[in-house]
Amino acid sequence: MASIVAGHFPGLDVLDGDVAEPNFGICWDQPPLSGRIDTVWHAAGDTRFSKGLAAEVMRANVRGTENALTVARILGARQFHHISTAYVCGEGAASASESLSVAYGRPRNPYEESKQIAEQLVVEWGESTGIPWTILRPPIIAGNSVDGFACSFTGYYGYMLAWTRLRDSLIRELEDADRARVLSRSGIQMANGVLHLPIHVPGNAQAPLSIVPVDYVIDSMWAVHTSEQRNCSFHLCGAAPKSFGWWLSNSLRELRIAGVTIGRRESNTGISRDLLRWERHCKRACKEYLPYISDEPTFLNSNTRACLEAEPSIDERYLSRILTFATECGFEASRAQHSPKNVT
């Protein structure tokens, strides 16, 4: 991080710390910063869903928020912006309100639970200190709209990485002539550089799936910051998200995979073992993502729209940019290189 900032933002200073450590593990008297900090933006967090990682997620997202609030007091900050997630709504709701008076639904994983707890910490801290705050709730964040750059490959990228690995594994199998003949009887074959894979996968093709470019999120955050709205939450989402069917069909087209159907088969009778094997593989790979590709609420965003009227621009060209960038990096953050001309 320090090297990236030094190369593109020479006016900024970077201090190394750990959000889960008291005071981030930093002595704030060296250098003297107290009284010089106007605003604290708390964006650090752990976005992993696995129940086996619950303790680590809670440490980063709950203890990390407690520490961020403490540091804000130490520094004499005059306002606090907390980056949460639109998915604090939990399960069950057809629409998700920005109002903090609406009760959360049951969290579907440790990540959602940790973010629900963290939001309450921010509200209680604001009530006790009188310091203005905002809670900013982005949905799934993907690469920027200029060149697809991303420095983290979770969320949408984790799901598409599973598809990339499945494709590569099948292509390797098809290189064996005997296996290719067997797989072709199930309709699995390569033709004109496209992998034909007639399997059914979990999900709801019509369900909305709110994915937005990171630069839209940043624009929204800045619009909220420069507004007068405080002590409330903001859904940093578009009003008309694309469906899961749109995202998957266009993403698979980019990966040169065809024949996939969303939804359960009416019957497995007569279906080959190979097809059923790969369907089970897909089901396991997308287990953590299933709640998000099956039933997503409508995120109401009147607070955000009052600050920023622009909608996120999502089309096939944008999808191609973000997926091309991710595949060229091998879905590895350490290989992500940002073009300096696109840094603003």
Quick structural overview:
It is built from eleven helices and 13 strands. It is of the alpha/beta class.
List keywords for this structure.
single chain; alpha/beta; Rossmann fold; 2 domains; three-stranded mixed sheet; 11 helices
Walk me through this protein's architecture.
- The structure is a single chain.
- The protein is α/β, with parallel strands linked by helices.
- The chain folds into two domains: 137 residues, NAD(P)-binding Rossmann-like Domain (Rossmann fold); 178 residues, no CATH class.
- 40% of the residues lie in helices and 12% in strands.
- The chain is built from eleven helices and 13 strands.
- The strands form five sheets. A four-stranded parallel sheet has the order 1-2-4-10, sandwiched between helices. Strands 6-7-11 form a three-stranded mixed sheet.
- β6 and β7 form a beta hairpin.
- α4 packs antiparallel against α8.
- The radius of gyration is 22 Å and the shape is elongated.
